[in-house]
Amino acid sequence: MFLRAVSRLSRHLVEASRRMAHGNEKASGPHPAHGSGSLLRMAFLALGVVFGDIGTSPLYTLKECLFVASAHGEKASQSDLFGILSLMFWALILVVTVKYVLFVMLADHHGEGGILALLALVPDRFRHSARGIGGVSGMTLLAVVGASLLYGDGVITPAISVLSAVEGLSLVSPALQEFVVPITCLILLGLFGIQSRGTGDVGKLFGPVMLIWFTTLSVLGLWQIAQHPGVLSALNPWWGMEFFAQHGFRGILILGSVVLVVTGGEALYADMGHFGLRPIRVAWMGLVLPALVLAYLGQGALILRDPSAADQPFFKMVPLGPPTWALVILSSMATVIASQALISGAFSLTRQAMLQGFLPRMTIRHTAYENEGQIYIPEVNALLAIGCLTLVLTFRESVKLAAAYGIAVTGTMAVTSILYYLVIRYSWGWGKWRSLGILALFLSLDIPFLAANLFKFFDGGYVPMLIGAALIAGMLIWSHGRTAVIDRYSKQFGAWETVWPELRKEVSSRVPGSAVFLTPSSNHVPPVLVHHVELTHSIQETVLLLTVVDMGVPEVVGTERATVTPLGDGFWRVVARFGYMEKPLLMPFLKALATEKGIPFDAEQATFFIGHSTILPDDGGKLSRVPEIIFAYLKRNAAQEERRYGMPPRQVMEIGEQISL
Questions:
Q1: Domain range enclosing 602
Q2: Which residue intervals of 310-458 are DSSP H helices?
Q3: Could you tell me if 487 and 516 are in contact, meaning their C-beta atoms sit under 8 angstroms apart?
Q4: Is the predicted pLDDT of residue 288 greater than 60, yes or no?
């Protein structure tokens, strides 16, 4: 009866959130539509990418909770077991199902999820006012902190997941113990090596394994529950409250282990751009959540029958022998796949950070025609691989990394709640008390989890915190430096109508031929044009001021491809648009454009002018010397977008400028 009641509650919440989604489409952007066949297909693919982290929690969560509960030598009683199971169940319901799946995931930014997508929905007065550290607002700083912590957890998750998987194999075959670290490193290299195939193909590879995994969890759980159905009473929230009443402060500390049951919940939101809201909801409500609940209750039922199983409740759900081998192998595969959720989330997070000016440009490869959110970023993949391998080689045992689990995610969860409140209150126009009620509910879950995990800081929690601190510094420095450069150029180089009449006085002659000046702005004069005229006192007879725009569609067709505006004096402003699955090759585009519009432009003989600025760090600028050195390094190593455009090297001329901020 209790499970049926929870099921009915979930259905009502889904319907309510669906109605809210229709009302919020203007604020957050429409969700992609799926047919029933496509929806089930995308839900299946999501199993292998989105749910790996949270789906493998039954391997260790209950064992860790019981270990903490009996840390003072007192064996966990039946009421303790029921209390822990109750806390785990309601954490899944309230944190993952209610908070993320039914509420937070409604707040997408053009289909993308994650904490930076949520920041993009926060009203401008919160994002651009109340200047704080590094010249950014408090809300922006919160989002940067949350995103950086999630990166830290993204480095730890693959390392500890794969390491624990290989250690699981050594339990069955102790002779493999000395090969644990080498095998772990090889598996990690293989995992990061296949990322270039895209999350869609990775989902096709991992999806069947995770389907078998969740089915196995359900079957094993049902089998154990059938032998001791009394464990179902643990679903009553009273047991969780009684656990706190009996154990006091030690009862609060158990949340540091209970949080392992929801680790991966933030990745569901971050990975939304890869598959969409509805497929993730269908997979969670239809398979993943029931399988997890049954697995935890099944382990509890086993311990009630055999208290000695508390040391390895998951693997002891099957008889010794071949079933144990099979479960260890399947668990190893599933735990490797668990790494995928945060790897994919790191790609999405990086793209959002670049779009919002928190990270320098990197190479983005779109890997699916039908979904703009399925991307691969080689630089991020390489950095994650290096970080994971470093952690494995440094710590060498998963138990030494276990304490680091959760501290970063719980911090991100709290930041998400605050930003979500600002969105529903000020962007969506929800009432004051309704919005505050949602915030109070979410923070009442987040803050106790965060506080309990902070006690694990010196036991390994410092790892994601250190990684996060480095990223926070880098993102703030890049954001502040980029803003300083933009301010400098906007003051120095104005609109065409204002600048060209004055600049024209510098032109002594018009050179025969054609020139293309690449410019990120379709309104201002390109700085490289100003420098070229000031240095040479000449300009070609035909000049194109070209802006390339990346569109959120697979292909751009027809008249939408280009906008051409004649400016007079042989100048033409051109805006070229390319879809995310197209190669933005300029030569064929410009040839066709010249013929169609009658522009006297010869692409084969044209000169392409590209401007690059070199930062010269000094004292007394908007940035102090050390941050300016870091910004200069980041800018120097940022991916140059124009390299994608297929311009013949012999026709390219780069004009550099040395500036100090």
A1: 494-659
A2: 322-337, 339-355, 378-395, 398-402, 407-422, 432-454
A3: no
A4: yes
